[in-house]
Amino acid sequence: RKADVLVHNFRPGVMERLGFGPEELRAINPRLIYAFGSGYGPTGPYRDKGGQDVLAQAMSGIASRRAEPGAPPEPCATPIADFTAGMLLVQAILLALLARERTGLGQTVHVSLLDGMLAMQLQELNWGAFPLSGTFPTLDGHVVMVGAFKPNPLQVICRGLGIEDLSADPRYATHEAQVAHRDELQARWRQEFGRRTSKQAIDALESVDILCAPVNTMEAALADPQVANNQMVVEMRHPDWGPIRTVGIPVKLEGTPGSVRLAPPRLGEHTREVLAEMGFSQQEIAGLVSEQTP
Question: Residue 86 above 90 pLDDT?
């Protein structure tokens, strides 16, 4: 009755069967923002199909977008569809709260994993497939390079690596020619990077302001000095496990900064508090607990 927002990610129809559909709840609280995420949307031929991150990557075409021509489809191991849909749902909720300030009424808002993955592809460039970009093995790891944002990026890359100016070769004189001879250029980059350490390759490219970065493992990323500077790894105390490290807050508000204050809760740790907030008496809560106690 007092909630501003309700969020769920059940399949379409489940909340209605439980008696918690938007119409039922709006009758109780007209100001409620009723928000949900689904795999493919609340209507249409896939309405009742089970949704999951990898499925959305596959159906949206993202899994088939590979750097190497002819490479088999491969979904990203990181759940990008889940994260993207969650962020989009937050935006939808904030917009609905702003609209409520004008209308006084709540509304239903929803996003889907599929729609989020399609929206991510508005920029059709596949940087990994460009002739002057890619991921290349070094003597001690891998480095990614993006050869762009220069009048003649090929010439600049060659200068940084200390090799002949390949852009003077008619085979590579224009972007179209470079695309046509991508395999040759990529082979040359593998050769040049392969004789250097990652630091040597990055130092060479950054000396001429070519975009590049090491391909880190998760352990290396967490130990990166920029990550430490950004306070993206923080330490806190867990009541059972003692000191633990966890991910910090990626959104920085300088006027009202946030902090990671609470350790992950134990299973059922806050059940009594939640039930009390919902209006259950202590006697009723004790009765529910006794029913569940073997």
Answer: yes
pLDDT (tens digit per residue) in 183-240: 999 999 999 999 999 999 999 999 999 999 999 999 999 999 999 999 999 999 998 9
Tokens of 92: 């939808």
Tokens of 214: 């090491």
**22 with 102, same domain?**
yes
Say whether pLDDT at 294 is over 70: no
pTM of the model: 0.85
Q: Kindly provide the residue ranges of all beta strands, DSSP E only, lying in the chain, ordered along the sequence.
A: 5-8, 33-38, 108-112, 133-137, 142-146, 211-214, 233-238, 242-247
Please write the tens of the pLDDT for every residue from 136-160: 999 999 999 999 999 999 999 999 9
The count of domains in the chain is 3
Q: Quick one: 176 and 255 in the same domain?
A: no
Output the six-digit token pair for 218: 């998760």
Cα dihedral across residues 31, 32, 34, 35: positive or negative:
positive
- Can you give the pLDDT at residue 137? 98
Which CATH number belongs to the domain containing residue 171 in this structure?
3.30.1540.10
Which residues are CB-neighbours of 41 under 8 A, at least 6 positions away?
47, 110, 112, 114, 115
Directed axis angle between helix 198-206 and helix 153-161, to 10°?
130
Distance, CA of 39 to CA of 8 (rounded, Å): 12
Same domain, 235 and 165: no
71 and 168 in one domain?
A: no
With CA atoms as reference, report the closest residue to 5 among 19, 22, 18.
Answer: 22
86-111: average pLDDT: 98
Is-contact 43 70, C-beta < 8 A? no
Domain region containing 15: 5-120
Q: What's the rounded mean pLDDT across residues 260-283?
A: 90
- Nearest of 149, 153, 150, 151 to residue 189 by alpha carbon: 153
Domain identity same for 199 and 135: yes
